[in-house]
Design a protein that fits this description.
Shape: globular
Number of helices: 11
Largest sheet: 9 strands, mixed
Strand content: 25-35%
Radius of gyration: 21 Å
Distance between the termini: 29 Å
Oligomer: single chain
Structural class: alpha+beta
Number of strands: 15
Length: about 375
């Protein structure tokens, strides 16, 4: 058997290989769309992603017969940061060829690194955080690929299970069909007598995202999700970093702030599915892709979109008021999506046992489209 070599990522060459490896391993696989390399850099580079100030981390590559065949990342949260019910020792960015020995070598490298940090339990994948790309795809392999949603081949979850990793939580993503009949849909929730004068939906102020809106989003998001399994606070620096990207890719109508009696209580951010305009780039933006991207962003009519951020004050959840707020946002996004020629919107992810969110989505016709799994293993 060929020897499998584990190479710690150190330096620009191995870092860029780490970022682009999935598009090399999975090219042509049904359901897979190659992300842009530059976007992967912003996700995994310490200098570009403020999340890395919260963790110690190490990334690894696997090489066999001179070919790169897999990757994995390991990170542990610094003192004072403890995910809700989940381990602070985590892995992410696991991708590999169909060979259990390659997967074994990768997860053992992550486990050994984490054990040296004192870890006795590991959860993942978190890439690099529960507020980023999370979970391993176990259902929906050939569904429409969606921007910022991780994709994995079917064999990867089987290999991970064979190596002793067990289910911790499943995450559900819904497909919400949209058609032109929603164009003239009158808001039923916000127009009801009891909500008409109390509930207001306004657009996010894209011109003042970092000066006013991200502070509100941070407060609402962290308050709303603070008891959720795996939660770690989304920092202001992370929201500001996200805002820098949102200004370029989010249409103004895809951001909503909800006010109740004049006070902000909830927000929602959706993004058009950028895979529609970058899949033929094969991950490379420079030197010829940038002009195409700018032109397509201006002229392309997107068919699909995804809700990527949502937060509602904890005090309103599991109440009639909280239900009305969530339903009003879904209703409004469905109408705005129809106006923007969107044919389906992905709502995800939602924890499998979060029925307070799942039921309203299903009430509006949402169908389960993808399921991602978070795994756990005792390593001490």
């Amino acid at each position: 058997m060929a020897r499998i070599e584990i190479v710690p990522v150190a330096g620009l060459s191995t870092f860029t290989t780490f970022c682009k490896l999935p598009r090399l391993l999975y090219k042509g696989a049904p359901g897979f769309a190659p992300p842009l390399d530059i976007e992967r850099w912003t996700l995994f580079a310490h200098m570009l992603n403020p999340h890395y100030k919260l963790v110690e981390d190490q990334k690894f590559l696997a090489r066999r017969d001179g070919e790169w065949v897999g990757r994995i990342a390991a990170h542990v949260y610094k003192d004072g940061i403890t995910p809700v019910a989940a381990s602070p020792a985590q892995f992410g960015a696991l991708d590999a060829v169909d060979d259990i020995e390659v997967v074994r070598a990768l997860v053992e490298a992550a486990e050994d690194w984490l054990k040296a940090k004192g870890a006795t339990r590991i959860n993942g994948p978190f890439s690099p955080t529960i507020n980023g790309e999370v979970g391993m795809l176990i259902e929906g392999f050939e569904s429409t690929p969606m921007f910022l949603t991780p994709w994995h081949p079917p064999y990867l979850s089987r290999h991970l299970a064979a190596l002793g990793y067990e289910k911790a939580k499943d995450l559900v993503s819904y497909r919400i069909a949209i058609d032109e009949t929603f164009l003239n849909e009158k808001p039923l929730i916000s127009n009801r007598k009891e909500w008409r004068d109390r509930l207001k939906l306004r657009p996010l102020d894209l011109d003042n995202l970092k000066t006013t809106e991200t502070a509100l989003m941070e407060e609402l998001f962290n308050d709303g999700w603070r008891d959720n399994w795996g939660f770690v606070p989304f920092t202001k620096a992370e929201f500001d970093s996200t805002a820098d990207a949102l200004k370029y890719v989010m249409p103004p109508e895809f951001g909503i702030m909800v006010e109740l009696d004049g006070a902000p209580v909830s927000f929602l951010v959706a993004l058009p599915n950028l895979f529609e305009i970058v899949s033929d780039f094969d991950g490379r933006l420079f030197p010829f892709g940038l002009p195409k991207l700018i032109s397509r962003m201006r002229n392309h009519k997107f068919n699909t979109a995804r809700i990527v951020l949502l937060g509602t004050r904890k005090a309103l959840q599991n109440s009639a008021t909280g239900g009305a707020i969530l339903l009003s946002m879904i209703e409004e996004m469905r109408r705005r999506g129809a106006k923007a020629s969107i044919t389906h919107m992905e709502a995800g992810w939602v924890l499998e046992d979060n029925m307070a969110m799942r039921k309203p989505i299903e009430m509006f016709g949402g169908k389960v489209d993808k399921v991602h799994r978070i795994y756990e293993k005792r390593i001490g």
